[in-house]
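Title: Comparing notes on inverse folding

I've been comparing how different people in this forum approach sequence design from structure. To keep things fair, I'm posting one structure and asking everyone to reply with a full sequence. Here's the target:
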């Protein structure tokens, strides 16, 4: 197996029992099941082709939470990448609305704080209409009393969440972070370049 290792920019460090160690660490592979060319990252990558890869087919996240993107420069479908192994593309893409096998860029989610995550969702755009505060995981917003299948706007007060188009954490994924847009997602089109609908039916906190 050909291996290339390079750390991007300055490592984010935390104190551990073994001394100072990278908090964000992920290894990407060009082939499925952790085969072929691979490279370790501790910082964002805006275009995997700049590192000599055609595509990413499997991923091993050793620490931290990351978000992957279908296209370069953090555009297109979003994929939540929490600690663990993703041996093939559908392990991280989940049950998306259409078949997608590309992941061309990725970055750490610095503000992920599972135990203290908190957000407000609003019925309409511009933080209008009915609202409710969320601080847990919700496999079905409708089951917990939300008024419909759509969310017009959101404010992330603390931490980071992944929102899904359908109940049971299925469908399009939208990563919402308190340190992006100052936590304000005033319009549903702010959720990502791939967003085509305000439909949100399940939400969970991001593990780190």
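Reply #1:
Here's my take.
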């Amino acid at each position: 197996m050909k291996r290339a290792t390079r750390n991007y920019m300055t490592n984010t460090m935390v104190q551990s029992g073994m001394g100072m160690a990278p908090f964000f660490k992920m290894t990407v592979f060009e082939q499925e099941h952790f085969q072929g060319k691979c490279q370790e990252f501790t910082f964002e990558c805006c275009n995997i082709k700049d590192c000599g890869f055609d595509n990413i087919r499997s991923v091993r996240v050793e620490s931290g939470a990351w978000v992957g993107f279908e296209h370069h420069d953090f555009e297109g479908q979003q994929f939540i990448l929490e600690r663990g192994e993703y041996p093939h593309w559908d392990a991280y893409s989940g049950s998306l609305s259409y078949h997608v096998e590309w992941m061309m860029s990725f970055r750490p989610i610095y503000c992920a704080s599972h135990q203290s995550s908190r957000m407000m969702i609003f019925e309409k755009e511009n933080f209008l209409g009915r609202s409710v505060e969320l601080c847990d995981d919700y496999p079905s917003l409708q089951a917990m009393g939300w008024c419909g299948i759509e969310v017009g706007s959101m404010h992330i007060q603390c931490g980071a969440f992944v929102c899904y188009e359908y109940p049971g954490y299925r469908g399009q994924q939208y990563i919402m972070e308190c340190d992006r847009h100052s936590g304000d997602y005033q319009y549903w089109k702010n959720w990502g370049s791939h967003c085509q609908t305000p439909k949100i039916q399940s939400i969970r906190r991001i593990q780190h």
